[in-house]
Structure formats: structure tokens, C-alpha cells
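#struct-queue
[09:14] JT: dropping the first one here, sequence first, then the C-alpha cells:
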Amino acid sequence: MCHVTANTRQDKDMRLLMDINRARLRSIPSFLLPFTQTTTSHQVRSLHQRVKAAPIPQPTPFVPNLQTFLTLIGRNLSQHASKIPSWNALFSMTSAQFRESGIDPPRSRRYLLRWREKFRQGEYGIGGDLRYVENGAAEVRVVEVPSSGFRAGTATLSPGMRKVIVNVAAGGSVQNIPSEELVPVKGLRIKGADTIVGPHVLPLKGGKSAKIEIKEGLWEDRRGRKVDGGERRQAEVRAKRRGEEKRTAI
């Protein structure tokens, strides 16, 4: 009888120990879950508050609106202008939102996002930083400005001066522009005495002046030409060509 009672106590002790071990392995009690969820949500909200939204740049005289921006960067993105509500939306929409609005294919969205970030950083195409723009055109002119060092005069250059290309109001005079605003235009150069050369520059009568007009694809990054089907299909295309050349030679 005593032997049976001892075995019973051992069985109870074993079951109690097993119950304790199972309790230790259980997941977090349900009454603690709301606290855990609240803590996680609070951490996520705090993270979003610390991450600031990217700034929205102001339009420039050469790029005054959304339609002009899409026209300048090319690749037929101007046809999607109606799918983007505003200038602010252009610089705040995500890639997924562009996709939902119907801007396809994916490479067009990537191209748009890349140019958007360049513009946000102040990296413009030709004419993007020009101040005097009228009816979608900016006039540039060759002028003489004081040189930082001594320069002898020549037949086409006054002593102590150097030539630069600056943006001026259409038909305006350089004398009306403060000297600190005579900033050389990027992407252009002077050839010979007074000829302005550069991409998409249209010379004006009389020399020394030219204009840059807003047009489709003025800033477009041209895609490379595929050779033999491009990288993905190049080996296949060339193998077929060699096979055809061998059959022809037989």
C-alpha cells in the first residue's frame, strides 16, 4: 500500500514538472499582447516622424510647370501630364502611385524618378538655370567682363577683359544687368570671335547672340543603340548568324 502511494506521488510530481515546463514555453500571454502591439506601433510612428519628406523644389523660369518638365526630359512622358495632378504631386508621388495612375512601362517610371531627383538636387539640363525666359525661349549673348588677372587686348577683346556667355532679356541690354548677375551659362562655349556653340543653340542675326527654346526632349538622355539584339540576346543572335553563314558557305 505504501509502495502504491509513493508511486502516485511521483506521478503527480512528474506531471506538475511537465506542466511548469510547458508554461515556460508558451507564447506571450494574451493580456500582454495589447501592450506589445502598442509599443511596436509607437516605434513605427516615431520612425516615420524622424524621416522627413524630400523637399519640393520651386519651378524655375525655364521650367515653370509640370507640362514643361515632362516635355524637356522627353521619352514621350509629356503624354502622361494629365495623370499627375500638380507640380507638388510630381515631386511627392511614389513609383507605385505613378504605376497606378497609368505611367508605363517601368523603365519610363524609373527615368522619370531619376530626372525628378536630379531636378530636386539642382541638376538641370541646358537652360534650366536661366533667369530671363520669355514665351519658352531664352536669349544668350557674348559679353565682355573684367578679368581676374592681367590680359592684353586683342583685335576682338578689350584689355583686362574676358568673354563669357550670359543670359539676357530678349532684346535687352547687358548694361541694365548688375555685374554680379552676369553668370556664365553652363553647357555653352565661344567659338572664334563671338560664335556661341552648344547643344540645341539657335544663332540670331547679327552674331554674338543665340537663343535656347523649350522643346520635346531637350534634356533627354538618349538610349544606347542595341547591337545584335542587345546584351540579353547578343550571343543567340550571333550564333544564328554564324550558323547561317556556314550553311551559305557549303
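[09:21] JT: and here's the second one, same format:
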Amino acid sequence: MFFDLNFPVQRISSLQTASKKGKQPQQAEAVPTFLPSQISAIEARVDLLIHLGYSVIAFSQTLNKKIDPKTHVNFLDGLLVQLRSRSGIVYLKRLNIILDRDSEKGFGLINANLSLFNSYDLIALIPTTHTTFSLACLTHSLPSPLTAHIIALPLTLPRLPYHLKHTLVRTAIKNGAVFEINYVGSLGGENDATLADANAAESGSSAKRNWWAATRELVRVTKGKGLIISGGVVAEADLRAPRDVANLIAILGLAQDAAHEASTKAPRSLVVRAQTRKTYRAVLSEPTLVVPFDHTHSTLESSQVAPESTANAMSAKSSLDNSIPQKRLRDMSGTVLDEVASTVPGLSQKKKRKRDQKADKLVT
């Protein structure tokens, strides 16, 4: 089972309701509309991904501003309703948030907006500054209802806007986050329009060169751990099969089995961990039936069994006593006492003398 967890959906036209006075539109939720041509284009890309061998596809919505609960709209819900169902294919919803300098003070990923994020299966952060990269690795990767399990780096920029520190990367991987590699940059293909407008991605031959240098550095810092490979492809001509992508990533110095797991095992584990956002304290386990112990019933059973067990114990004791020969002392002479004392092990000389003195007193 192969995963493509980054299927960009272009921004769509929205209808805003005007106020009665006609001065400004009301701050109401925009009504997302998909044209039939847009639906057919998305259907064609999905069919091609399925033909290439992908089974799990995550449709992504990208934001380049602070999340406002009054204006934010999850248009992926309406998209999945219009797409035709396919047997054996899983659709996921993903939210990409671009973090710039304005996002250092906050970008809306708070508990007050929890209801907005619960409709998404995956949350990904795209940091473009050193401060936002530190926040993504140290703070937003911790288990919580708002955990961002994917950190996507702007690999196609001329130079990464921050240094990949080992401590930050290891902490993010330890917390359960993964670093995403979109192979569209290796082809110099077209990126999401929202990323291009936010200066978080580039296209062309220069972007291809930048991608190879930045991705090699990412593989070196992570040592091949905590990586997933996604598409991020907008044009159908840039789509590639999973085996071709694994061979492409292996050129960066990643082992062949690790490159294969980056498209199969690692994304599957990521999807399972992402479900912990909706569980208590991010705990995901199978329920176990525990039968309570009935003390009253056990007491009654013990009272019923007690007489029988006592009688059996007494009969066993009597038979044991009969089997042991008993030596009877017929008189208080020393010879008999010496014979009995000799059978007692560990009797010291001092105790023997005391015993003899007591015997002499009794005889006299």
C-alpha cells in the first residue's frame, strides 16, 4: 500500500453574501464552489495516481495567513462529496499552514479553534523562519489535540532560511513528527499556487538544483529516519510511480529499503498517530475487558468448602501420627532419658548436664 499525502487542491472561487446596506460584505463563511471543469481535472489526477499504484491520497488545503474562525472554510469536505467513490481507495483531508514572520506571534493553532481542526485528518506546518522552525519542532510536535505531525521544509528555495540543528530535528522525530519530501521539486515542476505566492516554493531549473542540495542536507541530518515522500504535484505530467520515486530518493544517499518505507510504512504509522489527536491524552490502544472480582461470592464458596477441608486435614493428621512410632517414658531413670535425648539432634553438652541434674532431683 503506497501513500501520497500531499495532493494540492487549488484555491477555488467563493461567494460572499453582501450586507443589506451594501457597504461591506458580511463576515460570514464563504460558500465554496467547484466548477465541473475543476472536478473533472481532479478526477483525472486521482485516476492517474490510482493507476500508478497509490491507495491512500490526502487532499491538502494550504493557508498563508492566521486562521480566523469567522472566515475559515474547509472546502475539502465539499470536494470529497462531489468525487466519486472508488473501492479500496482512502481519501484524507490535510491542512497546510505556512509560517512566516507574522506567524511567530501566533497563527491560530489554539484550543479555541479546535473545532476547525477536528475536520482535518492531518495537520502540516511549513516554517519559513528560524523561530517558526523551532516552534514546529519543539512545541507543535508534542502530543495534543492540535499536534502537527508533518513538517514540510521549503526545499526549492535558493537557500534554506534556517540551519537544520540536530537537537531540533531529533526532538521533533522523538515526539512523533516526520519531515516531508515532495518529489515535485526534483523535477522542477509546478508547485501549489499558495506556496508560490507566499515565497515558500519555486519552480524551474534553479528550483531543481536547490531541491537536490537541500534534500541531501535533510537526509544527512535525519540519518534517513522520520522521513516521508509525497508528491505535491499540480500537473499530471509530473506524477511518478512509487518505485520510481524510491529510486530517485536513493540517489540522495538513502538506503533502498528506507526509501521504500518512506512511501509505505512511515506514512501508515503517521496516519495512525494522527488519529491520537482525537483521543484522550493522545493514547491509542485496544480496549481490554476486565471482569471484576466478586468478594461476596468467594466468601460463600470458602465457607461451604471449609468443613470438608477441615475434616480432610484432621484425618490426614491422625494417619500421620499413627505412622510415627511414639516412645513412652515408663520411668524417670536416666537410661531412658539418655535414649530419648540421643534422638534429638543438636543437643549441647551443657543442656545434657542440666537435664541430668533435673533427673537426679526427681529420683531423690
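[09:30] RK: nice, looked through the second one.
[09:31] RK: The first helix runs from residue 36 to 52.
[09:31] JT: good to know. Residues 130 and 163 are 8 Å apart (CA to CA).
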